[in-house]
Amino acid sequence: MKKILILCLLSSICLGLMAQKQKKKRVARERSPQQELVYDNINYLPAIKTVQLHPAAHENTLPIIELHGDGQLTLEFDDLRGDVRNYYFSIEHYDPNWKPSRLSPLEFAIGFNEDRITTYKTSVNTLQPYTHYRVNFPTANVGPKLAGNYLLKVYEDADKSRLIISRRFYVLAPLMSVSPQLIPSFDVSKRNKNQKLNLKVNTGGLTVNNPYEDVKILVMQNQRPDIQQWLTTPLFVNNQELTYNDNKTLDFGGGNEFRYMDLRSLRLASEHVANIAVDSSVRVDLVPDKNYSGASYASVFDENGLFFIRNQDKADATTESDYVWVTFTLEDDTMTGGSVHVVGGFNNYHCDESNKMVYDANQGKWQATILLKQGLYDYEYVYVSPSGGSNPTFSSGNHFETNNTYQILVYNRRQGTTWDELVGYAEIDTENR
Question: What's the mean per-residue pLDDT of the chain?
């Protein structure tokens, strides 16, 4: 009887273990859903946060490398699902207006045009678990063959329809040189508000048969897609020199210095932080901002809209920094009928539901709560009218003294080709004027 009882117990234990194993086998990780590609800087899933793409040695600068050079770009991001996934990436060539250039991968890419992201780390002692991924490219399997605009696409399980990230970057063939000059606005009424640029482009050894059709120039302020201007027609053409000094072009509103917040420490509230609460998550209330569009200019150091992941309390900011629910407040009762958004380099200045503020009519203030990783952040408020027009300076004003950087990209389409090359690049900092 004892032997029979022991055998029954062992068989029941074995059956239980087998059942547990079968249950575990049936639990499958949910794959990232299929997405439609957007030719822009997009995080396709709410779980994908803190995406950075920049030259390997220059954090958060414009993602641009030279064709056939030794430079690399660094892509890093966090996945708040906290598990480990098989992510792959590839690139695609685009025209200056971010439309597909209709070239095949054999024409614009070196290698197989697909590689896997193999470097990752899990978060350490954070309330919000996440996995941090990182890759440097070009790699042996992925690299650009032509100059121009590119889109980097990251997707799960080598399935290009299961997108999680797309990011724009630039490949430069330095064949033309650019000489920018900052001058006062020609419009006397705007001289206290605007910053005017003139450009000279030397075509170098390139033969440009029709500069009025073949050469296009894009100028961005602080890498912002919502503050940029195109030049398509030079005012003067003299041998190898193209001059762009029309008094109606490249006359930018100077804006104001960005507002900023310091989330490097959760133990001590820094300037502009009103309250820190730590429970099952971390919550931070910022000191309410005011509309100072009518105030005089005051010099304040900023990073021209950039953000940096930093941590004063932990050794490794990359994996030991926590995620924080940050509440922004803007005291302003002058803007009605539209929407207000919190923007900065951290969200590529996109105005969408994730950074849309809610208006409290009783208190005359706007509020939004956004999940951000610990670090240093520049930010600003943008008003979007019911018709869709945006005003990025409604709460801060325009001042010619403001320190801004301008990125200048020169595109050229050679005779007999069907794509545009990026052949010139320069950056000017108004602080050095």
Answer: 92
